[in-house]
Amino acid sequence: MSAAWAQHGDLSAKSPVEARRIAEEVRAPWARGGPKIAAAEMNVAGVRIRCYGHCPNAGERALIYLHGGGWTMFSLDTHDRLMREYASRAGMIVIGVDYALSPEAKYPIALEQVVSVVKFFGERGVILAIGGDSAGVNLAIAACIQVRDEGQGRLVRAMLLNYGVFERSSSAEARERFGGSGNMLTSEEMESFWRNYLRDDRDAEDPLVCPLRADLRGLPPALLVVPEFDLLTEQSFQLADRLRAAGVATELNLYRGAVHSFLEAVSISPLADRALEETSAWLRTIGKGK
User: How many whole angstroms separate alpha carbon 166 and alpha carbon 194?
Assistant: First the structure.
């Protein structure tokens, strides 16, 4: 996957439209194959969603999944196989959300859309988990914080946090070890994503933007899926510590040798296959016996 990206040069130097075109092209082979799951699409509060299995009814279990891509690129299609894998392995409906991308839609537009989807299904009695990868994780935990603050924290039963971003800045050590050219996610790319997402630097002070700054009490149980070699790995460890200190049931699975976005390589990666199996076993417990 890294070699395919390298053929196109620095995406942060390209227009958002061109970067998205390249991203769809590079990711297309990784979305093929896997389990066959029927999918249905609908609009919720003006947002396109894709339900794997069917759109859930009251009492059914569902995972709202938010794709990564630095709030700037990727789509339901780039993450189609990953969502089908979760649906098949965990035995639950998966809801992909086609949230608005930056820089055209800056904070808090995507978050507001995600919260609307959470409320739509949660208020109708669907047993919800929420998760995603990378920037999608940022939106997922922010949505949980927002609905908790609005007195609706029980709408979400669990959080799946795959190599998420929880703070704007990374340590000098992380940037030196994992942020340089040749890594799956570079420091330069991450800063470009932040510039796209934020209206201005003051937004980075908002705990809904940087959840490491948030009050995490009362959030649902969390599973963090963490690759060993990733610019964002330290942030997952920091968040896990803060969640536990806040009394949130928290598990962290570290995958030795893995890099950012490793789950999407499940077609060729035994490590990704193991991670999906372990995560799906955890997801199968959500809403059981309650």
Answer: 11
Candidate list 230, 236, 261, 280, residue with the active-site label: 230
Residue 226 has pLDDT above 80, yes or no: yes
Tokens describing residue 265: 């390589």
Given the residues 134, 170, 187, 236, select the one marked as catalytic.
134
Residue 267 annotated to the active site: no
Q: Whole-model pTM above 0.85? A: yes
pLDDT at 7: 66
Q: Is 192 a catalytic residue?
A: no
Domain assignment of residue 288, yes or no: no
Structure confidence at residue 14 as a pLDDT band (50, 70, 90) = confident
Residue at 289 is within a domain: no
Cα separation, 290 vs 42, whole angstroms:
29
| Residue numbers of the domain that contains 45 | 2-283
pLDDT band at 290 (very low <50, low <70, confident <90, very high): very low
From the list 67, 79, 260, 261, the catalytic residue is 260
Q: Examine residue 290 and state whether it is found in any structural domain, yes or no.
A: no
Classify residue 160: in a domain, yes or no: yes
CB atoms under 10 Å from CB of 2, counted, come to: 10
CA dihedral 52, 58, 63, 66 (to 10 degrees): 80
In terms of Cα–Cα distance, which of 39, 34, 14 is closest to 25?
14
Which CATH number characterizes residue 194's domain? 3.40.50.1820
Q: What's the structural domain count of the chain?
A: 1
Tens-digit pLDDT profile for residues 260-274: 999 999 999 999 999
Distance from the Cα of residue 234 to its chain's centroid: 17
| Residue 215 bears catalytic tag | no
- From first CA to last CA, the distance across the chain in angstroms is 41
